[in-house]
Amino acid sequence: MLFKYIDLTGKVIAFSKFLDLSISSNQNLYKCLWIENTISNCIFDSTLVKKVEFLKCTFRNCTFLNLHFIKGGFNESLFDSCSFLNVKFDTSDLSDVRFKNCVFEQVDLNGLLLNEQKITLLFSKQGTITSIATGNNR
Fold first, then answer.
1. For the segment 31-77, what is each residue's pLDDT rounded down to a tens digit?
2. Among 49, 50, 105, 131, which residue is least crowded by beta carbons within 10 Å?
3. Cα separation, 77 vs 5, whole angstroms
4. Regarding beta strands 12-14 and 33-35, do their DSSP bridges make them parallel or antiparallel, or are they unpaired?
């Protein structure tokens, strides 16, 4: 599914399944809310992702390229076998997010908000992150 010139500003996308989704620089995801969606085989490339909330979403086999996530959140979301290439998370909330078998290249994790959560990263021998988990910092 290729979106061309779509503007989802202020929209709510909930309880949906997306397969082969491609979102590029012509789309605007400003201030939209994604709730419990499953997104598989997707590509997010050079897209404005500002103040976007992904709540309890599942991303499988997705690629995130040249993105800057600004003041958004991914609360309780799962990223399974995803690639993050040249991505910056700026003041993004990653509370209770799970990353499984993901690859990170040129990723800036500055300004993360974890709501008093601890973060655990596990790396393979090749340097690939095999697991990231957040949880209560107790």
1. 999 999 999 999 999 887 889 999 999 999 999 999 888 888 898 99
2. 105
3. 26
4. parallel
Q: Give Cα 30 to chain centroid, integer Å.
A: 14
Global confidence as pTM: 0.79
Residue 41 CA to residue 134 CA, distance in Å, equals 24
Q: What is the DSSP letter of 93?
A: B
Tell me: the pLDDT tens digits for 68-101?
Answer: 888 888 989 999 999 998 888 777 787 888 889 9
The amino acid at 116: E
Alpha-carbon span 50 to 15, nearest angstrom: 21
Q: Give yes or no for a contact between 86 and 105, defined as CB atoms under 8 angstroms apart.
A: yes
CA distance 76 to 36: 9
| C-beta separation of 85 from 106 below 8 A | yes
- Whole-angstrom distance, CA of residue 9 vs CA of residue 121: 33
- Are 70 and 48 contacting, i.e. CB atoms less than 8 angstroms apart? no
**Cα gap 131→33, rounded to integer Å:** 26
